[in-house]
């Protein structure tokens, strides 16, 4: 065979291997994972989803407020803070929380303990807002949440969450389960993506609205060793340009672009034959395929002009203060409505809830930007029948100290507080109008065992029909704490 004949025969042979060889590889991998109890759904194995539990939810809307809202001024009001305001912990009838063994057990500062002053402020700072009971359930919420208070009988509060990082790397920790000093793990959205099949081939399984806005918080949507194809896809609230580089050039026809994508895909597949273990390449192939399909489907999914005036008003889009959060939350509803499995929403900019000073001023304003839109989301999902198949999570990275922050002569704020804080959930498979767990009288420690952040992960994956302990990659052994424990008490 001449050199020219060899060249001519090379392309068909490589194409044949690309078309069939990878299919065999995928089937073999799927069979091995099934035998090992780790079968999952993925684009490359075409396997059956690893749903070992009857799923209660089809999708998740994960709402994250960056910076750390104060649990005692939102969803876990503590009247003892007012009664003993200005006194130190040791001047109250309660156990001094700084002497509790829970403090060292759950607290892990990056700074040396002898120079760390965070989270140990002993002078009690009073609540900066009033509170009362709401709904038939009589759950206490502060006065900064008037609209959400009307939906309290739809919500389930977990008041005994805890984490270990006392700085803002906790934003990654609540999504990955790992302290920043440890080897990082994939995010909760990536695990959901990895474990489940898609409900819509034209949209990403894991979509992100409003973040992350910094390179050091990228881990909150990253997939790491699961492969880049399982990472979150950031989507902008702009139907004309929702995806970076996701629009066809004005002088290029759809047919021309289709041929361009086909050629790129073919070249990538040929390269994949020679480098079958290259996950970045495999992800790139899938990305091109998905990007082409998403060009039409994503702009339609976030085109809020298709919604009625009554709906946009429900989310507060007609008001400048609530517009941004409203747009992102309404887009989240539209995405899950179209089959997106996991939507991670950042309704506020990075770090804005971090109220070291002027807590009253900051939280008054910030609660006003998200209260109505979030309440509107719950009402909208419920009236459309989507709340029965969607799990909603509302969280932050940690709470804020019961004591007054004294650094820099502080007089009006609270520092970071990982020892106890509150999140809430609603929707598919979750109890309604219910409170689980508690912090102590001063809002310092999560009582009992409490729930480390991966308990929240395990619960969300359980609602999706996934056993978090079976979601493991051969050769990537996770710690027991990484798996978390399902919070069974909050399940309906």
Largest sheet at a glance? 9 strands, mixed
Query: Into which percentage range does the β-strand content fall?
Result: 5-15%
**Class computed from helices, strands and strand pairing:** alpha/beta
Unreliable spans = 1-49
Task: Give the C-level CATH assignment.
Answer: Alpha Beta
Mass-distribution shape:
globular
DSSP E strands, number: 13
How many domain regions?
1
- State the helicity in percent bands: 25-40%
Q: If you consult CATH, what is the topology? A: Alkaline Phosphatase, subunit A
Number of helices: 13
What is the N-to-C succession of helices and strands? HEHHEEHEHHEEHHHHEHEEEEEEHH
Radius of gyration equals 24 Å
Subunit arrangement of the protein: single chain
N- and C-termini, Cα separation: 71 Å
Average pLDDT number: 85
> Could you give me the name of the CATH homologous superfamily?
Alkaline Phosphatase, subunit A
List keywords for this structure.
two-stranded antiparallel sheet; 492 residues; nine-stranded mixed beta sheet; alpha/beta; disordered N terminus; 35% helix; Alkaline Phosphatase, subunit A
């Amino acid at each position: 065979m001449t050199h020219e004949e060899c060249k001519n025969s090379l392309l068909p042979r490589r194409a044949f291997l690309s078309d069939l060889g990878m299919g065999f590889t995928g089937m073999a991998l799927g069979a091995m994972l099934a035998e090992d109890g780790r079968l999952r759904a993925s684009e490359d194995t075409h396997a059956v989803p690893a749903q070992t539990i009857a799923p209660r939810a089809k999708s998740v809307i994960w709402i994250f407020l960056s910076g750390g809202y104060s649990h005692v001024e939102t969803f876990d009001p503590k009247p003892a803070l007012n009664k003993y305001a200005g006194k130190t912990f040791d001047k109250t009838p309660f156990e001094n929380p700084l002497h509790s063994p829970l403090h060292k057990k759950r607290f892990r500062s990056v700074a040396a303990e002898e120079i760390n002053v965070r989270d140990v402020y002993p002078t009690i700072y009073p609540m900066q807002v009033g509170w009362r009971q709401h709904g038939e359930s009589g759950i206490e919420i502060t006065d900064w949440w008037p609209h959400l208070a009307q939906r309290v009988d739809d919500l389930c509060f977990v008041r005994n969450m805890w984490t270990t990082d006392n700085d803002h790397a906790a934003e990654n920790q609540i999504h990955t389960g790992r302290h920043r000093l440890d080897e990082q793990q994939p995010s909760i959205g990536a695990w959901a993506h990895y474990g489940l099949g898609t409900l819509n081939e034209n949209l990403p399984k894991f979509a992100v609205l409003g973040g992350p806005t910094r390179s050091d918080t990228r881990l909150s949507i990253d997939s790491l060793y699961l492969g880049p194809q399982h990472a979150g896809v950031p989507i902008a609230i702009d139907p004309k340009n929702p995806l970076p580089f996701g629009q066809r050039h004005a002088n290029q026809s759809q047919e021309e672009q289709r041929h361009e994508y086909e050629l790129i895909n073919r070249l990538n597949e040929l390269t994949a034959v020679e480098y079958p273990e290259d996950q970045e390449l495999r992800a790139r192939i899938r990305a091109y395929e998905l990007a082409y399909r998403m060009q039409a489907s994503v702009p339609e999914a976030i085109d809020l002009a298709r919604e009625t005036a009554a709906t946009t008003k429900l989310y507060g889009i007609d008001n400048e203060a609530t517009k941004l959060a409203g747009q992102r939350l309404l887009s989240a509803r539209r995405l899950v409505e179209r089959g997106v499995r996991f939507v991670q929403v950042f309704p506020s900019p990075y770090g804005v809830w971090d109220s070291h000073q002027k807590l009253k001023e900051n939280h008054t304003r910030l609660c006003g930007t998200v209260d109505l839109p979030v309440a509107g989301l719950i009402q909208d999902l419920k009236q459309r029948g989507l709340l029965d198949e969607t799990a909603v999570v509302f969280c932050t990275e940690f709470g804020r100290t019961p004591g007054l922050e004294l650094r820099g002569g502080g007089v009006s704020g609270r520092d970071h507080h990982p020892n106890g804080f509150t999140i809430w959930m609603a929707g598919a498979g979750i109890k309604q109008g219910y409170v689980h767990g508690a912090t102590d009288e001063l809002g310092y420690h999560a009582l009992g065992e409490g729930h480390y952040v991966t308990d929240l992960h395990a619960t969300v994956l359980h609602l999706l029909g996934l056993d978090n302990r079976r979601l493991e990659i051969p050769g990537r052994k996770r710690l027991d704490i990484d798996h978390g424990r399902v919070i069974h008490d909050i399940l309906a």
